[in-house]
Amino acid sequence: MTVQKDAQESISRLQVLEQNVQQIIMQKQQFSSQLFEIEGALKEVESSNVTYKIVGGVMFGVKKDVLKSDLESKKELLELRIKTLEKQESQLKDKFKKLQEEVLAKVKE
After folding, report:
1. Over the stretch 71-88, which tens digit does the pLDDT of each residue have?
2. How many domains does the chain fold into?
């Protein structure tokens, strides 16, 4: 009976880990989408003579170098966040795999 309880608790933990992995994947997709937009904006900035930035609901003329620097800073931050999420995802998947193996071993007993 305690083996079955342990297995149930482990299955619950597996479900929580799976949900955490899904959340990380969703966050990573959102950041990747933002990164794609910023990379596109950087390409446009390179080919434009006049650049603008929207702050709130107002569009301001901005020097090309300032806008480029701002976009590159945001790009670096997003790349760092994506790398962090990838590490977290990998760690959670490893934990999930180990726990899954333990559950299968308990169930086979």
Report:
1. 999 999 999 999 999 999
2. 1
